Amino acid sequence: MIELGVHEATQLMPTRVIAQKTGVPKAFLHKIANDLARSGLVRTVSGPAGGVGLAQPAQAITMLNILEAVEGPVCVNVCQVRPQDCPRTLICPGHDFFGELQASILGQLRSRTLADLVAQAERLRRTPRVRVQDEVSIG
To answer: What is the pTM of this model?
Structure first.
């Protein structure tokens, strides 16, 4: 999705190019692209001039949209989505903790858009991070 976001939404990228740039195997990439297309996040066009492109502006796509399209609903603990399945929901001390954790994770995923990650990718291409082991220790 970040590779697609770097390019204009109107451009289609061949899956082989995406696979080369990201290191994602083509078969897995096709599966992910299908999941994303079913969710309305990307559009796919078959054939020699085809490829994959964003179906919405990068600013409109949250990280939650992407994660749920590929993985399904985000759930830290089943008691948060199906409390009726746990007989201990009303007395479990972990229930509130998992509820707060779930809300925090969902909030973070909703607050970041694909455009945010595209901007970060462009910054990192200009100035890559320095690994801790690559830094020289002065002592």
So the answer is: 0.83
